[in-house]
Amino acid sequence: MSMRKFGFFFLMIFVFSFCKNEKPKEPIPPYNSPQEPTNENIPIAPTDAFIKKYTGTIGDKFPIELVLINWSNGNLGGYYFYTDQIKTDKKENKKPQRIELSGELNLDETFIIDEFAGDDFTGKFTGSLSELSTIKGNWSNADSSRSMNYTLTETPIEDQTGWTGAWYRNEAQSPGMLILGNKTDKTIDFGLEVFNGGHSGLLEGTANLNGGIATFKNTIFDDIETCFLVFQKKDSLVLIDQKSSNWACGFGMRAHANGKYENYYSPKEAELAYGKENSIFKTKEQRTLFIQLVGDRYEDFAFNMQDIINFPKSEKDDFEATAFAGNVIGLASTNEAIIMKNGKGLFWAAVILYDELTDQFQVKYFTNDQKRKEAIPQTIEDWRKSFSEYEVVI
User: Fold this and answer.
1) Cα–Cα distance between 244 and 189 in angstroms, integer?
2) How many domains does the chain divide into?
3) What is the pTM (predicted TM-score) of this model?
4) What pLDDT digit, counting tens, does each position of 230-281 carry?
5) Which candidate, 231, 260, 256, places its Cα nearest to that of 246?
């Protein structure tokens, strides 16, 4: 995948999260025939995600082999090779040049896909996905000075092993989606997008397959360190073990591929833990009292406190309390929260929220301390110094 494609992808995720003060954009799930029982709590997903292989010609004289990935959220990806170049490169013991694809699918099923050789924009495809078995359209070079028609025909591939399909890491703050397809006896193509807070990563490639294990090794982003992923299929799960750094795979700072990917889409809700050594709440009852105070804003607190620290209590606050501050990794000043509590069931808490009516961020303050209903503790004032321009709503 080109660095340009990754940069655009990351920017879109960041802008979405920054503007809406919501969870980083989760992939819109494609349908994957679930082996797990379905119920009303599992969303019904669209049916259009896929990885397909096509062969054909551009301009009746340039044969290509193309892998197309439909992420089912309006984004298209993939890559292609010139078939003649593959043969030449094999004779010369060279890797064939892979031309990256990145584009958008419109609601009427027409598309525009840009192509990149490395970081250089080299051309674009236009066409329609209304008939998936054969794709026809127009290819033009970077400055549109040259244009040719193309026809590509799908290479049907049957998979009796169950690898093919969409798989989901259903974590609240680190969701992910894996699409697998084009399986042969020795290889399988994949598309992988991962998130962790405000950090994200997108990777497309081909893994070597050996029974229930697939491995991917490639120096895509780092000439020194190899991106190394191991995929293991276990019934309704695909487990990914990332054996290299995030940078080696082109992922954001804390985004990673590790985890359990299930064959159904059922994202977990964020929770604030209790009873653990570093938990804000000592008991479930204490957390329940807090939930009763903040109501439907509890999920905002839980999501915004992905990374929690002890926050120093101001000496100006003349009452007993312990303070905990948190934020979404990579989205500080837009996704933050603070909770102060004492041992008598009193809370003083605040969370950053985005108000769509005013198109502004706000700090929403909650307390069950009747003496301080209108007086925000100095500790919370200290916490919000880096975003003091946000209106405080009591």
Assistant:
1) 20
2) 3
3) 0.81
4) 999 998 999 999 999 999 999 988 899 999 999 999 999 999 999 988 899 9
5) 256
